[in-house]
Each structure stands twice: as C-alpha cells, then as structure tokens.
Amino acid sequence: MGKRIHTRIETIDPHRPDPKVIEKAGEILKNGGLVAFPTETVYGLGADALNEKAAEKIYAAKGRPSDNPLIIHITNMDALERIVTGIPEEARKVADAFWPGPLTMIFDKAGIVPYGTTGGLDTVAVRMPDHPAARAVIDAGGGYIAAPSANTSGRPSPTRAEHVAEDLSGRIEMILDAGPVEIGVESTILDMTVTPPMILRPGAVTREMLEDLIGEVAVDSTLGNADSKEAPKAPGMKYRHYAPKASLVVVEGPPEKVAGWISSQAVRMRQEGKKVGIIATEETRASYPDVDVKVAGTRADESTVAGSLYGILREFDADGVDAIYSEAFDPEGIGTAVMNRLLKAAGHQVVRIPEEA
Ligand code: AMP
Ligand code: MG
Q1: Distance of CA 273 from the midpoint of ligand 2 (Å)
Q2: 181 in ligand 1 pocket by Cβ < 6 Å?
Q3: Fold that domain 247-352 belongs to in CATH
Q4: CA 191 – ligand 2 centroid, Å
Q5: Would you kindly state where each structural domain of the chain is located, as residue ranges?
Q6: Which CATH fold topology does 8-219 show?
Q7: To pair with 318 at 20 to 30 A between CA atoms, which of 215, 243, 331, 354?
C-alpha cells in the first residue's frame, strides 16, 4: 500500500454546503486527488473520471479489482452528450423521469472517457445524483466525477461519513460529512445498450417504475439466482460484496415462524458459547431472546430497512459476533434491492421455513 496521507474531514450542511469547503474539494479533484462525499444512495469516493491516473487512485484506495468499472457522476444532460456516443430515445425518457436520482444508465462510451475508468469496457455507466452536496462537488471538480461507494472493497457500502473514515482514513485527501444518507442502497443500474433495456442491479428505481415509462425491461437473470454459473453482466456484481465478517444466514417464511426458528437457533448457539446477532424488524423484536438483536426497520415500509442494513452489518463486525441470522424481506419495491444486497452479504445462505411447520 502507498504512504499514508492526511485525511481532512469537513462537516457540511447537506442542503447548503459551505462554498469554501466545496471549492477546496473541487481543487483536490482537479489536481487528481480523492474526495469522499455524500449522495442520496451511499457515500461515494470521487475522482476526476477523465483523468486516468486519478481513477487509478480509486482502485488503489479501495483495493478494488481493476476490471470493476466506475460510475461517472454528472449534473446535467450536456455533460452526458460529451461522454457517450449516442443517447437512445428511451434513455432520454428515463432521464427525464428519474434524473437527478438513484439511477445509473449504461451507454456506449465516447473517446474522452479513459479505459481506466470503464475497466477496459467500450461502455460507460453514468448517474446524475440529486444530493445538493454531491452536485456541488461534481461541478466544482470539473463535471465528470467517477464515484464508486467509498468503502474498502468487500465491506458494506458506507451510509455515514464515519463508515468512510473507518475504511479510508489515511488513503484519501478529504471526507465531506453531511450525516446519514437518505436511501442506503446503491443506485439501480439499467443497461441501455441492449434491447429491451436490462436491470443489472436493483435499486430504489424499480422495474415496475421503469416499465410504466418505457415498456418491457429485462432483469439480469443471474441476480436472484444463487446457483447461476454465468457471470453477472455488471462486472462488480460477481464480487463478494457488502459482506460482514461473521457468517450470515437469511431465513424466509411467515414472520412469526421465522422469528421462532431463529430464536431456537440463537439459544442453542448461545449455549455453545457463540455470540449471535439477529437482524429483526419492529414487528418481531419482542419475540427474540436476549442476544445481539438489531432492528432494521418496519415491514410496513421497507425503505427503513434499506436505510439501516449496511450500518447494521458494520455494527455486527464491531460487536464481533460469530453468526448472524436475518429475517427475509418482501422482494417488492425497494425490497427487491434490500433482498439482493442481503443475499449477497449472506453468500446466498438461505433457510426456508414452510407455512405448515
Ligand atoms: P459501485 O459504484 O461501487 O456501486 O459499483 C458500480 C457498479 O456498476 C459495479 O457493479 C460495476 O460493475 C457496474 N458498472 C459500471 N460500469 C459498467 C458498465 N460499463 N457495464 C456494466 N456494469 C457497469
Ligand atoms: Mg460498491
């Protein structure tokens, strides 16, 4: 690893970031340095996307495999025109409806985008975020900012500046702290270079929302399928991601039965001297024994679970638990993204409790 550098941490107002701080962040980016900043999805690790050397620093700081391409963040449609070779009509519709917002689209790349940013691909992933601080940083940094999640590769994505500091202190020039993010899971990735367009990673913008707008949308078939031998189409989705240190098992079935099964499992493991963690919901909290139980949110609104999942996985790492059991969630709406990340974190270890058990 390279030599340690001083990481400046600046607290900013998410809606009205201090222009002096933004200016400093912009200077660092224009000089080829790294700045972590909040977006509405998770914290991103920014570098000038058109400067190959700067993009390389992202891979080094994160320990990210170099074939895992970066998403370029922009703030306006003129910027999009400059980094892609053509914008399909459907992509304009999707941009009109969901940009700025938690959606990334894949296009054929223009010559000015270095292969160091796209992991050697002729396509490029682009997102226009909505977070005011993110937008200010992107503009100050020259308008084209590569920004993967600001975590060490293989750890859960950061939803707070503290998570970024945990992973990247001493490796990057600056962290902008605007408090916890709003959504908590990464953007939906939609590949516009294929017909019909295909979702490569589920996020807050759902298949239903996209189909209402542009008709048929496919979903990468390897995503929900633990046994698939095929590589996912987004290179990054093949890596063990989002993963806690302890083994994690997801338990599906009727919530009361799931809580009962996890409880007996937890009691047995506690008797064996093991430290057990449980990811519960407000609805089931009271039915668990006295082990490390964390409430992820409410089943009535799964966006609460999206918001807390990564933070909880990090807390379990800090608590040093041996095993984690998590309730499964409804794979509807944002729940599709929650289950995708949870199953990846679990390495697809799933237990199914039947209705009649
Ligand atoms: P992250 O920014 O860390 O959330 O990861 C970015 C995700 O976007 C990874 O899963 C990448 O594989 C995916 N991605 C970026 N560029 C492309 C591309 N040109 N084609 C397909 N997937 C991409
Ligand atoms: Mg990531």
Answers
A1: 34
A2: no
A3: Rossmann fold (3.40.50)
A4: 17
A5: 8-219, 247-352
A6: DHBP synthase (3.90.870)
A7: 331
